[in-house]
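My convention is simple: the sequence line spells out the residues, with the fold written below as integer tokens. I include a record here:
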Amino acid sequence: MLEYALGLDGPAMIRYPKVACPAEDGAFALPLEKGRGVWLRQASPGGGKICLAFTGSLYLQALDAARRLKAAGHEADLYNLRFLKPVDEGYLIEQLNNYDLVVFIEEGVRCGGFGEYAVALAGWEAKTATLAVEEDFSVNGRAIGTGDELLRENKLDGAGIAERILGMIK
């Protein structure tokens, strides 16, 4: 049934997230378009300074980072990727290429992850960067803890994301 709904003619994989998408943001309920994400916040349609492109499970962290960036004088739009595979590459670049900086944020390992794939696509005019876990999900040999603790230790919480982006734009 999923294959039919998405127009696929082969097997499909469903990734079950560990975090629920907030019901208060209607963009999460928009119909799926194969390979395309959705805007959760776009202050200036057509582009701007910073775009945070993230996987759904990092919505709250991206939202917090955007608030922190705004407090520091930098507006950031939020784009939920929705799909890691397949990706409508032309659409992705078209949607995000009008920004000065596009930051792909994911809770997976950088090497071989979506961000690495996305920044390697041909056609970027925007500066691109990836925030992800380096090689494994441990810091100082620690690989256990709550999800929030691990995100914080890997600077993938709102404060860490904002701090890293502010370092990129200075």
Observations:
- The first strand starts at residue 38 and ends at 41.
- The radius of gyration is 16 Å.
